[in-house]
Amino acid sequence: MTDLAALSLTEAAEAVCTGQATSRALLDACWTNWEKANPAINATIWLDRAGAEAAADAADAAVRAGKSLGRPLGKLHGVPMAHKDMYYQAGRPCTCGSALRRDFVPTYTCTVLARMAEAGAYSFGGLNMSEFAQSPTGHNKTFGNCRNPWDGSHITGGSSSGSGAAVAARMSYAALGSDTGGSIRLPAAACGVTGIKPTQTRVSRYGVMPLSFSHDNVGPLARTARDCARILSVIAGHDANDLTSAHEPVPDYEAALDGDLRGMRIGITETYFLDGADAPVLAAMEAAAKVLAGRGAIISQIKLPLMDAVSTYGGIVSRVEAATIHAQWMRDDPQAYGAHVSGRMYPGYAIPTPYYIESLSRRGPILKAFAADVFSQVDVLLNPTIRTCLPTLEETDMDNGPPGTEHRFLAVSANCRAYNYLGLPAISVNCGIDPNGLPIGLQIAGRPFAEARILKVADAYQRDTDFHNRIPPVLA
Amino acid sequence: MDDFLKATEAMIAAWHGVTAPNEQGRRLADDLQGIIRNFARLRGTIAFEEEPSSFEAALQATKDGA
């Protein structure tokens, strides 16, 4: 692996802006790792090599011009990235991981990529993903399964499978994912990188393939909490094209990363998130809590209220919205979907509208009651991102797997879905390696719009540990 | 095929024009009986929210310093 590819996103941006490296050299480092790792992990669906090289050269020219004219450069200047293949870019493919959109070329560009481009970044490809973002594992019948860079027989997590794998394999400095029930946090956990799902409404979804309007979120996967803070500072904030996006001011997320956790109250959930958890996962979480305590955090146990209601109502909202969005294709060409994707959507058509409306109407009161109880006791919540050691692709293959497959499949996302219904921000960081050599994820969640706080905790953890810097075997 | 599944498939076809894509879909449609039970258990536990935009309001009401 080249040294440039080992840089974090913030280090790479700094290197370009100070003239220590060119954007073209960063891009070449990404290509080198793509050529080495991608045949084994299948993280990309399409690449635009010529377009990326032109963008890199333009970024380098801007650096040279900026030096002579004193022009400021953007926070992501010259950093090459690829993103989950569901972000619309005018004139570029956007398959959404499905045969149904294999030839789809949008005519407009999503707000988040426009904002990243304005900050100096450019994208070089579309990353593999679960079909229409509808699976927590990374299986894909059309473009092939994405494989874990730590062990290709295991899942990458999904649905942002290529985002997790590409960042872990140092093919991209960061990647956007989307999260409707864990789809940023799960691949971050499974691939050993960092991924944040912001508060519902925090980031615009204009020009982003929808799955569930009430639960969809846009956010980054990257190598460090600081990288995630950098990207979030660029993409967060109200968007006139997405009136569901919040007017809440965007704080300086990086300024919050001071490593000081003195007095921070951290609650480890006693039940629900730990039900059926594997011993190595529990041990890694407990070790992580000790690291945080070493920086002054106050650790306590906490019981979460209303989780049955969160689970039931959240499941109804997601099912009905996904079924509605896909109704035309489900009528016209249901066999174009993977069997488990169409099979899981089908019951959504039978759920009565009053159930759906009731589930939505309960969301505000439940959040208020949850927050009043939980956040009066603690500032953030800590739990494993995935309860179990990482399963294999075969063990979670819903179309062809052995008995018990569905149980293992559903267990993958069991610890993430609740935060989508509650709308809370949550981040996953790598906190260990299981006995099979696969990463273990630690999930940190907080109040609405408390992204700065959970990033601060994640960054503090990464100051004292090196899991986020470990290189997966695919690059050995 | 039990009565619940028969009625569910007929309702989906009549209201949406969608037919079961495969056996997985049929099995999961049959599993809706569990969701009905879970939903019924929650009745009366949380008051119905009358105000519009209650979730967005709750996000604001529960943030730091609110």
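qc> The CA atoms of residues 19 and 41 of chain B lie 30 Å apart.
qc> done
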